[in-house]
Structures are given as C-alpha cells and as structure tokens.
Design goal:
245 residues; 9 helices; 4 strands; two-stranded parallel ribbon; mainly alpha; 6% strand
C-alpha cells in the first residue's frame, strides 16, 4: 500500500479534563491510534482492526468527536462516513489548578501505562508476523536498545534532535511518500534508568567503605550500564537490518 496523506501538521497539548477522560478508555485510545496511523477510516474498518463491532466503534468515535479529538469527513461513495484524527500528534499538559493536576497525573499515568502495553503487544505481533513480511521489510526492521550516559539537558536536546529527524516522515503529514512506502511503527522511549538511584546509593556506600579509588577500580573491572551487552540491547550501535523484528 502506498500511503500518502498530506494532512496539515497539528500537534496539540491536551489540557481539557473531558478529553483526558475520553482517552482513558482503552478502545477509544486504540481507535485514535489507528486513525493517526492510517488516516481516515470508517467505523466498520476500525472495528476489523481493534476487535470490536462497527456500532460500538461508531459510539466511541462520536465520544471522541464530542471532545474534538476526531471528526467525520465526507465519504467518497456517499455511504458510511469515515472519521479522521483532528491532530497529527498529542501531548498532555498541565495547569495551575491543584484539582486538575491530581486528575491529570492519574489520567496521564493510565495513558502512559496503556501506551507501553499497546507498544509491547504491537512488537510481539510484528515478531509473530515476521516471516510473512517481504525480505526487504525484514532486513530493514530493527529492535534496538541503548544505555546512554547523559545529563537532563542532553537528554532533552537528544529528544528534540530525534523528533526533528523523524517528523518529515509522519504518515499523516507526508505528502511526498514514494511508491513502495507503507506505515512503519517507530517507538522511542527515553528516561532515567529506574535502577539508577539504587546504583548511585550503592556506589556512594562502596566509596564510604572502601574509598573512591576502590570504587574506580571496581567500575573499571565490572561492566555496567553502557558497557554491558544484553540480548536486544546495544551500548552504542543500532541494530539496523537485524532479524530480531
């Protein structure tokens, strides 16, 4: 399938509690994700992908429409009207309202957890379907992880540079996609490692007991972080062309 859209870019920060509550429903989030990936789709077309019924999808699409996240568009054949996302990217913002901050944090955490679970399921589906893909798609796919050493400022700058590199290829907005192109799922997650705090405490305790020179020698002898290779994890190179996915 050659996918082109050319929809005008609209990256929105969602601060409306009604929209956040609407997105907290897993089916609505799945519907919105499908529309943002593949462009306008009817409720029947969505139902075949998200594992629901056309009538149920229609109901939830209307709910998303009420908070401005999707909109109905004219059908080419005059029959069932497709729906499309009104945004090409979403972020979740904050206000100074303490009550909203509490609610936002709860919804944001639920949305983040849902996103991680959906991405995990998508990767497993891609691995399961690997042998069904043409060889050129198999060889171009990648499944890579990195352990980086960064400051918070560097992490933010890296994210901005990656976003600028990726943005021209966004499916909904790319109008010049060449023949043979198709929708590709790309997920990038970057955060301070959850074990970093415990590791820092352990290093401090080791330094207290044995001195900083012993800590330095231990660090040089025991590979940790970016020097340790694990299946699916690369300390400095991407796995482009890998058969892992």
């Amino acid at each position: 399938m050659s996918f082109t859209s050319g929809q005008a870019e609209r990256r929105t920060t969602v601060t409306d509690p009604r929209a956040l509550r609407a997105l907290a429903h897993p089916l609505r989030l799945a519907l919105l994700d499908h529309l943002m990936s593949f462009g306008p789709r009817t409720a029947s077309e969505c139902a075949a992908v998200v594992g629901s019924t056309p009538s149920n999808c229609s109901y939830h699409l209307r709910a998303l429409g009420k908070v401005g996240l999707v909109e109905a568009v004219e059908a080419d054949d005059g029959r069932e009207r497709p729906w499309r996302s009104t945004n090409t990217g979403l972020a979740f913002g904050r206000t100074d309202d303490p009550e909203y901050l509490i609610g936002s944090d709860t919804v944001e955490r639920a949305l983040a957890d849902r996103q991680v679970e959906d991405e995990r399921a998508l990767v497993h589906r891609a691995i399961a379907q690997r042998d069904e893909q043409p060889v050129e798609w198999r060889e171009a796919s990648m499944l890579s992880g990195y352990a980086l050493k960064l400051t918070p400022v560097e992490l933010r700058e890296l994210g901005e540079r990656l976003d600028a590199l990726i943005r021209p290829y966004i499916a909904l907005t790319r109008a010049d996609a060449p023949a043979g192109s198709d929708v590709v799922a790309l997920h990038l997650n970057a955060f301070r490692h959850p074990d970093a705090i415990a590791a820092a405490h352990a290093d401090a305790e080791r330094g207290r007991l044995f001195g900083t020179s012993a800590v330095a020698r231990a660090a040089a002898q025991v590979p940790i972080g970016g020097n340790q290779r694990r299946p699916g994890v690369d300390s400095g190179r991407g796995a482009a062309g890998s058969d892992e996915s």
